[in-house]
From TrEMBL:
This is Protein LURP-one-related 6. PANTHER family: PROTEIN LURP-ONE-RELATED 6, PTHR31087. Gene3D superfamilies: LURP1-related. It comes from Setaria italica. Belongs to the LOR family.
């Protein structure tokens, strides 16, 4: 029985928990993004930030072959400027280069809303009523968890103590969950916290 939960694609779902290693690009590549490898050091995903893409609030997740699979953009406009939350949209890139909305993430942008959780909505809607995934913990401390609406852990982030610093950390994605989607969420968190994807 297949119990995978694809957001980007079923090909990014594994039948077993998967450890992904994330390494920020060198500081000389301003807003360059990061590289994601498996435990055998094979490149699985590459995330490009605004230093490569040329515009703020734009991120791109590519597969190990360098093919774009997920385009992420921060929503703008007057309605967004008046809102107490920032909204990010993730779009699936198909072979014709067309975009299809697959998820949106909202995060607090003011002190008033700071205690509000970061929530993710999947398109089309999953079985949940108000939100599909929620992020808890601290990205800055490399100690954060993504749970689904039933509070089941989907992915957990941690620091590789032996490697030192915040340039190298890992994310364990539970079986059946979409790894490309989780890396897209990591890219947004990286940008929100002004790290490797932001100029």
């Amino acid at each position: 029985m297949d119990n995978s939960i694809p957001v980007v694609s079923k090909i990014f779902c594994s039948g077993t928990p998967t450890m992904l290693m994330i390494r920020r690009r060198p500081i000389v590549v301003n807003g360059g993004g990061f590289v994601v490898t498996d435990l055998s050091h094979n490149v699985v995903f590459v995330v490009d930030g605004c230093g490569i893409l040329g515009s703020k609030g734009e991120l791109m997740v590519k597969d190990g072959e360098g093919e774009p699979i997920l385009s992420i953009s921060k929503k703008g406009g007057i309605v967004q400027a008046l809102s107490t939350r920032n909204k990010w949209n993730g779009y699936l890139m198909d072979y014709q280069g067309k975009d299809k909305l697959v998820f949106s993430l909202t995060d607090p942008k003011s002190c008033i809303a700071q205690s509000a959780p970061i929530r993710i909505h999947i398109e089309p809607k999953m079985h949940c009523k108000n939100w599909d995934f929620e992020i808890g913990g601290s990205f800055a401390d490399r100690d954060c968890t993504i749970v689904d609406c039933t509070r089941k852990i989907v992915a957990q982030m941690g620091r590789k103590e032996l490697m030192g610093g915040k340039d190298f950390y890992h994310v364990e994605v539970q079986s059946g969950y979409d790894q490309a989607f989780i890396i897209g969420v990591m890219a947004i968190l990286d940008n929100i916290h002004g790290e490797s994807t932001r100029c």
